[in-house]
Each structure stands twice: as C-alpha cells, then as structure tokens.
Design a protein that fits this description.
Elements: E1 2-6, E2 9-13, E3 20-26, E4 29-35, E5 55-59, H1 63-72, E6 77-81, H2 84-93, E7 98-101, E8 104-105, E9 108-109, H3 110-120, E10 126-130, H4 137-142, E11 147-150, H5 156-169
Parallel strand pairs: 4-6, 5-6, 5-7, 7-10, 10-11
Antiparallel strand pairs: 1-2, 3-4, 8-9
Helix pairs in contact: 2-3
Length: 170
C-alpha cells in the first residue's frame, strides 16, 4: 500500500483497488486521490486562473510532478490523479485537451490506463511522462498514445512545453 502525505493531509492509494475518493485542494491545481482510509466525500480544489477551458489530466503517483506542470504550463488547468482508477474515471467524466500518463502507478500500469481510455476516447492525445527506461516512444504509439517524454532528460521542461503545444494544437 502506498501512503502519500501532502501538506497536513495524508492520503492512501491501495492496491489492487481503491474504494473511496478524497480530495486535497492546492491553489491552482486540483488533486484527486484514491483512498481506502474511510474518506467518503469528493471535493474539488481551485481551478487554474486563465486556463480558458484548456485542461490537462495528469495521472502520476507523484503529486509533485503534476504540480510542476502547473508551473511550466501556466495556461492550462492541471487536474491530477495518483492512481489508475481515478485517472480513468476523470478521463471518462470530463473533457481534457491532453493526458499526461506515468507508466508505473500504484494500482496498475500506464499501458493499462491508456488501453482503458482508448475504449471510450480515441481522440484525446495521451503523452507518457515516465522515468521508465524500458518504455519507449514506439511502445507508447503501439498502444494508442502519441509518445513519451523521459523524466530524467536534461531537456525535460522544453520537451513538455513543445509536445504539449504540438499535441493540443493538432
């Protein structure tokens, strides 16, 4: 079981399934958590100012990654999910300009998430943002995503900005 602490709140995202959802609002970003600790309310955090309806879903079990996207992509609202279950639910229930997806998640893999999303949404671009060395651009394209950006790259920020502009405008 993965335990994450954010601010004064503590959240848990269990494996293999999450049966509760709790939320912890942070200015300019909305973090949604899968939880097994008894939380039974879903609350939404603040929306990014000036996003003009352009939203990116960030599915990554490390909240700092999604928070960083809000800083480097200020024209977008970043909606964050830390596990597969919540990421798929958000993708199904809302409209996003782009989906950032990590490969390793506490309740499955990004490949599984991509496959699930592609069953109901063939249009929204998906970009794997991962530290996995074995998951390649070709692997991502084979399962229906538009590619990958490696977290360890020296040009990570530049690549994120360029790929976001390219994919949102296409």
């Amino acid at each position: 079981m993965l335990v994450l602490a954010q601010g004064i709140g503590s959240v848990v995202c269990g494996r293999p399934q999450a049966d509760q959802i709790t939320s912890h609002p942070i200015p300019k970003i909305r973090l949604l958590y899968c939880s097994r600790d008894g939380g039974d309310q879903v609350r939404r955090g603040e929306r990014a100012m000036g996003s003009g309806g352009r939203k990116i879903l960030c599915i990554d079990d490390e909240p700092n990654t999604c928070e960083m996207f809000q800083v480097v992509l200020p024209g977008y609202e970043i909606v964050s999910a830390i596990c597969m279950a919540e990421g798929v639910k958000l993708a199904r229930d809302d409209h996003f300009s782009l989906i950032f997806l990590d490969y390793y998640l506490p309740d499955g893999t990004g490949a599984e998430v991509c496959g699930m999303i592609r069953t109901f949404d063939r249009r929204t671009p998906i970009l794997f943002v991962t530290g996995s060395r074995s998951f390649t651009e070709r692997s991502a394209r084979t399962i229906g995503a538009q590619g990958t950006v490696k977290k360890a790259s020296r040009t990570f920020i530049e690549q994120i900005r360029a790929r976001t502009s390219q994919l949102v405008l296409s």
